[in-house]
Amino acid sequence: MICIFLGAPGSGKGTQAKRVCASRGMKYIGTGEILRENVAAGTELGKKVKAILEEGHLVDDSTMIAIIEEEIKNEDSFLMDGFPRTVCQAEALGELFGKYGKNLGAVIFLDVDVEEVTKRILGRFSCPSCGKDYNVHIDDIKDKRCSVCGGELLQRSDDTEDTVRERIEEYSRKTAPLKEFYEKKNILINVRGTGNPVKIFERITEALDNKN
Ligand code: AMP
Asked: 80 CA distance to ligand 1 centroid (A)?
């Protein structure tokens, strides 16, 4: 199956998308993660996008479309988290699907309001050693240590208050219209993204099972 996860920054897309991929054997394609790995490794792409990520702006469409083409062209079962983020990217993705003979199976929209996502983002931490995610509003992490491997928990460098405001504005201006874009194609599934994360995962699983 080919699937897109849509939702505001901090809506829980990344966490849920990885769970869905693990349970269904799908490839996880997170464009934010790909960009952050490039920044950390100091590649040409990383140098080009570092400041853009830190300011909370979007990377240009043609760079992102080129990345996604490489990621998807040889894959049949994958989930995209963070792509598309503009109508231009969504249109280009449709063309890539035509070029490589692929069909979009479902678009999951994780519905969480702006106040809630801001609170979530500012509270999130992760362990750079093993990748486990935490949130101060849910987990007990007073000592800022990973309960799995003991690593020191860190915040993402773009999870600061100013950057979060900018990322949410970028989302409202450029990404939110994708909801209507996919609604018109009759492929969008609205999933309530609040409450217990296990329940949210169950809602997504049920939605995807009904599509199969
Ligand atoms: P994320 O991890 O999905 O929140 O993405 C982190 C950052 O990476 C975003 O704030 C953007 O700067 C950049 N980014 C990720 N995906 C895209 C995309 N499809 N188009 C433009 N910028 C992106």
From this structure: 12
